[in-house]
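Example A, followed by Example B.
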Amino acid sequence: MVATQLVFMRTVSSLNMTNAYLNHKCLAKQGRYKPGSWYEKQLQKIIVSIGSGDGFTHGYDMMGLSDDSDYVSVTNQCRGDSYGSKCRSCFATAIAGLRRRCPRYKGAIIWYDQCTVEISSFDTQGKFDKDNDFCMSNTKKMNVDSFGEKWMTFLDNLVGKALKDYLYAAGDTRFGTKKLYGMVQCRTDLYNNSCRKCVGHLAVKFQDCWHGKQGARVLGSGCNFRYELYPFVSSAKPRPSLK
């Protein structure tokens, strides 16, 4: 479990205009592939296919290939307000980042502001990973009584909204004399209970990191949430439906 203390500054550029690198994990247990191997060739085919496909329109794409003894998949999940060209750009940046930070690893995850990209030797569709996640929080504390209870109620409301709206939701609520802005997202292939369980798992696992802080974000491969005392995502319309 990783908890990172960060001070978030309010700037105009925070509204969906940045794509900062957040974290990465090289999944050593999945092993590494050799140059020229089946894995490397199929991985490259998938990257090219996703990069030239129309999944960026919806902000999500997942593709896997297998033979008798091996499997490789790539999943790209862009933030709910970062579809189209922003999603395409983030995917390209993430792939370059993975190649540099986790060279020849069969499994790896990288997080940016606007997307999460995972390479895996397992079929991850419809599943969320309980191990590879992290938390980033503001060092300043929230001077509001019963913060945890109030935030969890707001988070639960956002999850309920996300389940009706492409598994992404953002909103705000009054918090004493302040306004709290929040966002939650689940990977597009996680539905209903899986999405809710994923968010609940992260909220409990990293409670010591986010509880009582003026801002925090918790990210996994299957879901993530964030709250701040300032708006941090744009008011763009939700991405087009996959249907």
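Example B, a separate protein, is given below in the same form.
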Amino acid sequence: MGSTTSCCVSSSPKIRRNAHSRLESEPPDTDLSREDTGYNLQHISDRENVDELNLECNPSDHPRASTLFLSKSQSDGECVCVFGEKRRSLYVNHQGTNRRKHSSCSTIYLDDNTVSQPNLKFTIKCVTLAIYYHIKNRDKNGRQLLDIFDEKLHPLSKCEVPDDYYKQDPEQRQIYRFVRTLFSAAQLTAECAIVTLVYLERLLTYAEIDICPANWKRIVLGAILLASKVWDDQAVWNVDYCQILKDITVEDMNELEREFLELLQFNINVPSSVYAKYYFDLRSLAEANCLNCPPEPLSRDRAQRLEAISRLCDDKFKDVKRAIRKRSASVDNLAAVRWVPAILS
């Protein structure tokens, strides 16, 4: 107990410091390179920034990236009135002069086209106009043409495909009739048309191809087929499209869907921010090309529906606000000044 010797030997702090100083004084091994020591390893945050930059280049994935169809429509600086539309929807003829329709106390003009409930006919016209600009202002150098989308190898009808089919650009009306036929027969919604355009531009970006006269029908058909299955709860089967397009087989539709998904890398997610961006860019495209959804006077029934929706949203906001107030009530009581009645004797 009182002996100065012990069976447990421990080094003093001075010895440990001397040993550490000896380790630091030794020169580093010059044979090790920077790759061996790990000095050139990229930080994980730097790698994530690179991926984010790649996403920003793809408008179908990132909400801040500009849509391809809007940039292509502005590339040539030409504004074309399509579908025979003129700017008569916003104006009314009164005593030989054009006057713009304005809302007043007695009449309110609203267009039947919102981001939550787009107008079907107007949305299909805008989407087909975007496809038209994709074909018109495509890369003239000629990017790769995949066989699965080649109409010469996989025709949609028994009609003979002309030899110069890859040189004749389709008109807006031709694209509109093709898309409208599919949407009318399959009873698809306007939201499905916007998702179709998102998938189409995602395919062009991922697969690095261009939509041209030789492949536009099969690319649009594949995008509509996939969008209808992702968006609608009761999707249209592939065999149903064979009844719309009489000369196409189920095996061809299955192969088209499979190849389309593989080229999209099975990325079928459409964020709400991307959907809203495409909707408002389509409206900008329509306004630049004299294509407007005609405003109609607000009827009594529609006003009552809008009032009911507004009241429902107001009630939900009040419930959320009341729940927040309950959660923070105990903390507020601690900090708040409480007035206590005093008893004066």
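On Example B: Residues 1-26, 42-53, 85-98 have pLDDT under 50 and may be disordered.
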